[in-house]
Amino acid sequence: MVVRTPAVAGTFYPSRREELEKLINLLCGEEPKEKIKAKAVLVPHAGYIYSGRTACEVYKSVEIPEHVVLLGPNHTGYGEPISVYSGDAWETPFGYVEIDKSLREEVLKFPYAKQDEYAHLYEHSLEVQLPFLQRYAKREFKILPIVLAFIDYEVAKSFGRFLGEVLKGKDALIVISSDMSHYIPADEARKKDEILISAMERLNTEELYFKAVQYNITMCGVVPAVVGIEAAKVLGATKGVVIDYTNSGVVTGDYSQVVAYLGMVFL
């Protein structure tokens, strides 16, 4: 069995189960009594001390279904442009989660999607989501991790529509992993990010993609967001709703060079 072992446990989040559970409980607080049935969510992927509260606000609020598709950006440059994880399971301090192999077979019918392990080896953007999913899932679930390079808009849109068709009729959640503006003053980050947030609230992926390029907005998960939102639209989503927005300055006290974090649900 091919298992992806954690690459950033001990740095982005605690490597010991007890410490990890304690930190998530501290960051997340109480669960709401009623859960949201979302088509997709957008969550950040920084170290838990920075973006964990924003991720918590999303994960504790939504149902975790049987199938979870993880879409994240490629920070390392390794692997295929649309890299579908090729192994059998992922490991975290909370244990193992199986790869959804039947779903993988269907997704790999998209012409540009390829089985690949290399893009996933050191990539943190999807790994950091798994402990939250494990913590809040009320039943067993399987995952399909997909890492995306900065591909053309039309390819990303087509892949999203294809993914949505694959997920039709399944009890599924799409997890889009992305941080927002990087290493600029907090006020500037908010102004720039609001341009993209507005597009995502309206599910306008063309505006999201091209305005990110036009205004040099350093949202690292633009392509995963295009794919995830287009898939969510196929599944019936009509709007995006902001759950939380913050930045690293809240933790560090330095608002001159922040990374911004967004939590959204798509309904």
Comma- or semicolon-separated keywords:
alpha/beta, 39% helix, Protocatechuate 4,5-dioxygenase, Chain B, 267 residues, 11 helices, 3-stranded mixed β-sheet, single chain
Would you summarize the structure shown here?
By secondary structure, the protein is an alpha/beta fold. It has 11 helices and 12 strands.
Could you explain how this protein is built, in words?
The chain has eleven helices and twelve strands. With 267 residues, the chain is of the alpha/beta class. The chain has one domain (3-266): LigB-like (Protocatechuate 4,5-dioxygenase, Chain B, 3-Layer(aba) Sandwich). Strands 2, 3, 4, 7, 8, 9, 10, 11 and 12 form a nine-stranded mixed β-sheet that branches. Strand 5 and strand 6 form a beta hairpin. Helix 8 runs antiparallel to helix 9 (205-214) and helix 9 runs antiparallel to helix 10.
> Architecture, CATH level 2?
3-Layer(aba) Sandwich
Terminus-to-terminus distance: 36 Å
CATH top level assignment:
Alpha Beta
Number of helices: 11
In angstroms, what is the radius of gyration? 17 Å
Quote the beta fraction: 15-25%
Topology-level CATH name: Protocatechuate 4,5-dioxygenase, Chain B
Low-confidence stretches: none
Structural class category: alpha/beta
Helicity range of the residues?
Answer: 25-40%
State the order of secondary-structure elements, H for helix, E for strand.
EHEHEEEEHEHHHEHEEHHHEHE
Summed over residues and divided by their number, the pLDDT gives a mean of: 98
